[in-house]
Amino acid sequence: MRRKAEIRIIVLVGTFFLIFTALCFNYYRIAVKREHVQTARTNSQFTIIAGNSEGTIYDRNMKPVVNSQTKNIAAAVPSFLDRNSTAEFALDKKQFIEDFDKGLPFTFECKPDTPDSDGLTIFDIPERYSENQPAQHIVGYLSEGEGVAGIEYAYNKILRNDYGENSVTYTTDGFGQILIGDGRKIIRSNAEKSGVVTTVDLDIQKICEDAGKGIEKGAVVVADIKTGELLAMASFPTYSVDDMEKAIDDKRSPLINRALYSYSVGSVFKLVTAAQAIDNKFGGYVYNCTGQADVEGKIFNCHKADGHGLQTLSEAITNSCNTYFINLSRILDIKAFRELAFNLGFGREIHLCSGMTASGGVLPTVKELMIPAELANFSFGQGKLSATPLQITQLTCAIANEGKMPVLRLIKGMTIDGEEIMGGKSAQYSQVLEKDTADQLKDMMISAVEENENSNAKTKYTTVGAKTSTAQTGRTEKKGEELCHAWITGFFPSDDPQYAVTVLFEDGGYGNDVSAPVFREIADRIMQEK
Fold this sequence. Notes:
- By secondary structure, the protein is of the alpha+beta class.
- 33% of the residues lie in helices and 26% in strands.
- The protein is built from 17 helices and 26 strands.
- Strands 12-11-26-25-24 form a five-stranded antiparallel beta sheet, with helices on both faces.
- A hairpin with a 5-residue loop joins strand 8 and strand 9 (178-187).
- Helix 7 packs antiparallel against helix 17, helix 9 crosses helix 12 and helix 11 packs across helix 14 (372-379).
- It is elongated.
């Protein structure tokens, strides 16, 4: 009996232990379940990021220079989709199936006609750059999502703000499963509407890039003569952000914006010498060119070996007679001559925006110009003198704008909505030439084209004034021939100038041979389209 009683007690204790254990387990299970439910009700959500929208760089007419194209990105929840039917909308089906089979929410690029559903949210995301991106040197590029060159760098914080994220957020249950029935929160950013408005005219920019596609190394600049707004600024060769390694390895240095770099100027500078002569009342100076000039034992040759004969100032501009300007410079006030060059922008930087400042080039000092040979070189744009395409364009603006030289500008203002421009500034001028002096120079530039039967700058749809230049560099190519920079700068229409254009062909040869045809095409196409 005692043995049976002990067994009953052991069984009873065991039973109570099992019941207690079951109760404890059940209580723990209920407690945990309630905890999951509470979490689901408060902050259990799952967010899918479908890409970022960034601020746009606009042209003067609010046309997007970047963000001009879009792509469709879908945020997908596999558990609510049919794999095979949905795969038909994916641009990369193989990658889609691979991601789908993982069972986790993901994004993929889809076709434009992809339907939206509870398990599939479609976003229209701007693509930063187009395949043939215009104005690449103005735009610049990104590295690891940050601007490192051009406007991308200068306005990095404005273009990449805190509200550019596109996303869809789902509610999840206590086990992390997405609850479609509870809806989804979709955020579609409109950050691409805000951005930076440039002075660039996208149509003119494309004209310049197309006309200059034969320029191996060089630049083209177009400015509004009256406002100084840069309508186009193209540098060659260009590059693609999709292949930066190729651009870095290219010996032609395509990442350089050549519109901002200084080069030997050559005969374009004869316009400055002519301006000083007119101011000094030597506009009627006549000289007999024999083909060379002796400057204290140093012989300077004219490009026409047998000479041009008797030359007036206007004829010397048309014929680009070196010896005329060498002898003319001897009777000029050297200090005033250099000061005029400085006032016309030589030796002074041009700031466009942060990280985009054109070199001031080299402007010889008065002391240096006291050396006869240095003054002789200076008179026709050789020697130490150097300038950027922007500076030369600024000079042309002053001549064509009655002596008023505008400050060149690239930025027009900012925008929040892609429609209204804020923070714009009015044009700024400096009266650097007397109106009569500017008018005379303007007429000489017109004659240099119209009265020169060999000029390649003559246009079909407008009339122009221009001056070419073949600037010696002191360097030679493999065959021993000297390398020269080919320039032309000019304006049109000649009766009421609106556009100033400068073309530089680095190491390109003769200005009339290679740069003038590019100038001509740009002028004709702008007049046809505008």
